[in-house]
TrEMBL record:
The lineage of its organism: Bacteria, Pseudomonadati, Bacteroidota, Flavobacteriia, Flavobacteriales. Residues 24-139 form the DUF2147 domain. The keyword Glycoprotein does not apply. This is Uncharacterized conserved protein, DUF2147 family. Residues 1-19 form the signal peptide. Pfam families: DUF2147.
Length: 141
């Protein structure tokens, strides 16, 4: 009986830890319509957080490219594009990286923070965090 309780406690603990992780798939919503327009997957590489567009909801935009982007991302397909790069864990947030907005091609400094199990805060800014914009992503089901 004790072994079963210990196993159950371990599984619940593992589930709770996993649920509080930034990694996985997230819904990105269109600010004008409020509807989910893409799904972003946050993944870990070399102990840093990255994110890429893994699904575009509008079938007509499946082959869209980032015409406004500069450098290596110029005219790259948005589907599969890394939009979040090089964030490092700093206490309860991930910071020190950049986020690309494929709608306008601009790159911003950013940080992300899990505010609830299924809600992620993304803050993009120029210079200091005071001058920027915050978005919230809900975890994709």
């Amino acid at each position: 009986m004790m072994r079963k309780l210990l196993t159950l406690a371990t599984l619940l603990f593992a589930f709770t830890i996993n649920a509080q992780d930034i990694f996985g798939k997230w819904n990105s919503t269109n600010e004008e319509t409020g509807e989910v327009d893409s799904i972003i997957e946050i993944y870990k590489k070399d102990n840093k957080a990255y994110a890429k567009v893994v699904k575009i909801m509008d079938p007509a935009r499946q082959n869209s490219v980032c015409t406004a982007c500069e450098g290596e991302n110029k005219n790259k397909k948005i589907l599969g594009l890394d939009i979040l790069t090089g964030l490092e864990k700093d206490d309860d947030e991930w910071s020190g990286g950049e986020i690309l907005d494929p709608r306008n091609g601009k790159v911003y400094k950013c940080y992300i923070k899990l505010v609830k199990d299924n809600k992620l805060k993304i803050r993009g800014f120029i210079g200091v965090s005071l001058f920027g914009k915050t978005k919230y992503w809900e975890r994709a089901q």
